[in-house]
Amino acid sequence: MERRPPACPRQAWMEDSSSQESRSPGLQLPSSYEVTTMQPLKLDASWLPIYKEEQEAVDSILAFVTSSNKEERDKATFLRSISVLCRSALKHGLTQGLDLFCDMYQLAENIKALLEEEPRDHLCTDLRHLSMLALEKLSLVDTALEGKAKSLLRACFSSVFWLPAEKEMPKADLALYMKTLNSMDSMLRTVVLSFPASRVSKELQGILELLLDFTRCEREAVRERAMARIDVLTRVLSDYSTLQAHANVGRGTAGPVCSGEIQLPLLGKLLGRLILFRFSEEQTSCAAFHALFALAEFIFESRLKDRADQVHWEAVTTSALCSLSARDCAKTFGKYLQSHERTDVILVAIEAMGDASILDQQVPSSLLDVALEDPDVWLTD
């Protein structure tokens, strides 16, 4: 028989509850609920092997990345702490987990944001300098900058290249400016030398493309600064085997990459741009001159196997670079370039004919004359 609902539900419920309590004397309903307050999550990096050695640096980093109000003093402390932490970890061999820590708390991204916030019309603090130092140390931590190098370097270059020309800076800023440039160059060398062998060519290509873009700027100061950094990179390129072997000591990475294993698809474009600036009448000429020498060393180290040929070509190249003729320089390099690289040199010259950043239009015209004199060599891809 179907059970009918009680006529007085409330009374029935109370009676049922009473009967349950009598059957289960140990079960008591709470008279009131305890209210608990959620405590803010405290970041803990004590799992890092380096934490005991550099607790203060780690805590300073965590305090900065979690703070909503970042004063100038906090920014400087943050950057110095990154340098201290990475340097100490490398020194003591306690880098385990450091790449995860850097990624988890977005240290590289925070540095990039700080650089992008810096004013471009004056140099008032050493934040740029400290950022370069921090990035240099971060680059030595495995995978800490993986996939981020180009965007970080773009932020570095922009924060410095767009500053007023050196002659327009207050004298009080000149020492800091030079210190910042030196730290940038040191950082750039270290970043390149820290790339794994499998990524060296691709990463170098990306950085050089970035710098070549800056050489197209209408401001001479920007072009000069970019060309000086290209000079730094080509010198690293020419000495790559020795420097890479030195950089890898103690890191447990593979052996050095020889210059012959480095592929630069933009070599022709780079060479063409360097020739244009080498024979121009501006400050970039000096940096382009040195960069061409370094690039020449890279080419004959990587492409000429016979030592006698290397010595001969070095003598010829030196003579051509010291001459006042862009034609001689182009012809000398052209003998050792691949066909598509020679074509790229000419394409750069054509592009430069309407380029405001090339002050002496006679130089690209001279390069075009070389191609027209021997089109089978220069215009065949």
TrEMBL record:
<dbReference type="GO" id="GO:0005737">
    <property type="term" value="C:cytoplasm"/>
</dbReference>
<dbReference type="InterPro" id="IPR055408">
    <property type="entry name" value="HEAT_MROH2B-like"/>
</dbReference>
<dbReference type="Pfam" id="PF23210">
    <property type="entry name" value="HEAT_Maestro_2"/>
</dbReference>
<dbReference type="InterPro" id="IPR045206">
    <property type="entry name" value="Maestro_heat-like_prot"/>
</dbReference>
<feature type="compositionally biased region" description="Polar residues">
    <location>
        <begin position="16"/>
        <end position="29"/>
    </location>
</feature>
<feature type="region of interest" description="Disordered">
    <location>
        <begin position="1"/>
        <end position="29"/>
    </location>
</feature>
<protein>
    <submittedName>
        <fullName>Uncharacterized protein LOC120325362</fullName>
    </submittedName>
</protein>
<feature type="domain" description="MROH2B-like HEAT-repeats">
    <location>
        <begin position="54"/>
        <end position="192"/>
    </location>
</feature>
